[in-house]
Amino acid sequence: MNKDGFISIIKEELEIEEVEFNSLTRFDSLESWDSMSRLILISLVDENFQIQLKDSDFQILLTFNDLVKRIGEDRFESMETQEDTL
């Protein structure tokens, strides 16, 4: 999965309108952002990257770019490489 694919999953799961979200959008600026949204995002990260986040992590994980840095850029790149070989 690449970053764009993960953004698409986040948009779908959090029911975010296309124009509302990009990699620099602050999560807390989204109309639908609440404790349930954080739990969904925590679950998505765990499911896709096997990284366990806590609700309190979103005090410093403010944007998708922050989330990518926490997950690790290389995790996305290595996953892209694996997808290309399939």
Question: What order do the helices and strands come in, and which of them pair?
Answer:
Layout: H1 3-14, H2 35-49, H3 64-71, H4 73-85
How is this structure best summarized?
Helices cover 56% and strands 0% of the residues.
Structure description:
- By secondary structure, the chain is mainly α.
- It contains 4 helices and no strands.
- Helix 1 packs antiparallel against helix 2 (35-49) and helix 3 crosses helix 4.
- Mean pLDDT is 87; it is low at 80-86.
What can be said about the biggest beta sheet? none
Distance between termini?
A: 12 Å
Please tally the β strands and state the result.
0
Mean pLDDT: 87
Provide key terms for this protein.
single chain; 86 residues; mainly alpha; 56% helix; globular
